[in-house]
Amino acid sequence: MNCDKVVNEVYTFLDGELTGVRRTMIEYHLRKCPPCADSFHFEERLLFLVRRSCSDGDEVPAELFHRLQALIQQEATEGTSGE
Ligand SMILES: [Zn+2]
Question: I need a surface site. Which of 6, 24, 36, 40 has the fewest CB within 10 A?
């Protein structure tokens, strides 16, 4: 399992839709790979905050979510150089 795959699966993971083996593989990778762990925890926090701020329902406005995500990605790209 490489980093690209892990990042792609993080959303599924956080949605609770991953099955046991894949969950374990991701958890294992996150333990060995600090950059992925960082982005995972970031997404986790983001989801938590978004969900909490919309506590009257489970629905998170997609627009808000995407806007936050874009902001975070922007910061992430600015903070790193190339790969
Ligand atoms: Zn990684």
Answer: 24
pLDDT tens digits along 52-68? 776 665 566 778 778 87
Ligand 1 centroid–CA 68 distance in Å is 22
Contact 40, 70 (CB under 8 A): no
| Dist. CA 56 → ligand 1 center (Å) | 35
What pTM did the predictor assign? Answer: 0.59
CA 46 – ligand 1 centroid, Å: 19
Using CB atoms within 10 A of its CB, is residue 69 exposed (0-12), middle (13-18) or buried (19+)? middle
What is the tally of structural domains in the chain? 1
C-alpha 23/C-alpha 17 separation (Å) is 9
What domain range includes position 24?
Answer: 3-79
| CA separation for the pair 16, 51 (Å, rounded) | 14
